[in-house]
Amino acid sequence: MLRLALMLPLIVAAPGPDAGRPVAVVVESTLPTSGGEIRQQAFDGDPDSAYESARPPREGDAVTLAFDAPVLVRSVEVRASGLDGGTLEGAEDGATFAPLAEFREGVAKAEPGKTLKAVRVVPAKDATEPIAIREFLVESDPGLRRFEFPVEFVVDEVDDPALKDWADRAARECERAYDLIAHALRSDGYRPAKVVRMSLKDGIDVPAYASGDRVTGSTKWFRDHPDDVGAMVHEAAHVVQRYRSRRNPGWLVEGVADYVRFVLYEPENIGGINADRARYDQSYRVTARFLGYIVEKHDPDFVLKLNRAMREGKYSDDIFKESTGKTMEELGAEWKESLKG
Ligand SMILES: [Zn+2]
Predict the structure, then answer these.
(1) 184 with 264: CB under 8 angstroms?
(2) How many Å lie between the centroid of ligand 1 and the Cα of residue 119?
(3) 241, 258, 293: which is the final residue of a domain?
(4) Which of 212, 250, 263, 312 has the greatest number of beta carbons closer than 10 A?
(5) Could you list the residue range(s) of the whole structural domain that residue 279 is in?
């Protein structure tokens, strides 16, 4: 017993695998967004961009920066317009807010020195102008992860009203996944769409599809498969890919989208594979596994290079040999062999 008592503090003190890693956040607002001045721009590290509301605030409105995990907040500063006389507040449990500071001349600043789960701004009761939040500046331990590729998914048409909440949840989840997608598919000079529209329609014979900056899902599919939010993440990957070239093989276009979905976003859901029948050009999640194999065994930047070539209309099968020293067919055979091992 004595030994156990001595051991416990050591176990508790040992840093976990997530220690020091930035904590993800969500920007929530009860106010509608003004055009492209989206919520995530209030936490993108860019003082020139802002979140702007489409209307003046009313009683009960707030903009909240919610953390995925509690962090020790040393200081928090918010730069904004339309908020003078309003308050900056913090919540230890993420729900019960207490005032930290008042807005004066466009700034509210506090040094809470406390573990918080969220901070929010509450406009003054007599506010008459729409608000604009340039940035939440938070010094904390661990740090918070800023949005590298800010985005907003706007749900604009849902044929089945019972699915409206589902669509809103899927939109929030795609916003959360967007940095992962856009970072995996980044290329010099390319900025992915900042506003993506989402609709759910009757009479669609696939689960979902993407076209330009819009993703459309089937009401029937998502009524029957409410857990399949990853299908919308796959479509979000197509929005980010924005390939236009006819040279791109369809199986690779789908393979890259499913690489993002099943290798990076939800690897726990990729499912099993038939090692005897698998072909590298089988598309979707089978090709996603093949790409994951190349990334792991041959070239960590392979998907970046492949994505860039497809985006810029420069794809040819030679990219496999240029990146790995082996042809596509040789890699396919090697990968298939590895599945049996
Ligand atoms: Zn697809």
Answers:
(1) yes
(2) 38
(3) 241
(4) 263
(5) 250-340
Residues 34 and 119 in one domain: yes
**Could you give the residue ranges of the DSSP H alpha helices within the chain?**
2-13, 164-184, 219-224, 229-241, 250-258, 284-297, 302-311, 318-324, 328-340
Give pLDDT < 50 ranges for the chain: 1-15
The pair of three-digit structure tokens given for residue 166, joined into one six-digit string: 């589902």
CATH code for the domain of 222: 3.30.2010
Same domain, 90 and 126: yes
The answer to whether residue 85 is domain-embedded is yes
Q: Report the pLDDT value the prediction gives residue 6, as an integer from 0 to 100.
A: 41
Are residues 176 and 73 part of one domain?
no
pLDDT at 20 (0 to 100): 75
Give residues whose Cβ lies within 5 Å of ion ligand 1: 254, 257
The strand pair at 132-141 and 51-52 is best described as: antiparallel
- Ligand 1 centre to CA of 252 (Å) is 10
CB 310 within 8 A of CB 256: yes
Cis check for the bond before 15: say yes or no (omega within 30 of 0).
no
Task: Work out the burial of residue 118: count CB atoms within 10 Å of its CB; fewer than 13 is exposed, 13-18 middle, 19 or more buried.
Answer: buried
Domains held by the chain: number: 3
| Identity of the residue numbered 332 | G
Between the CA of 180 and the centroid of ligand 1 the distance, in Å, is 17
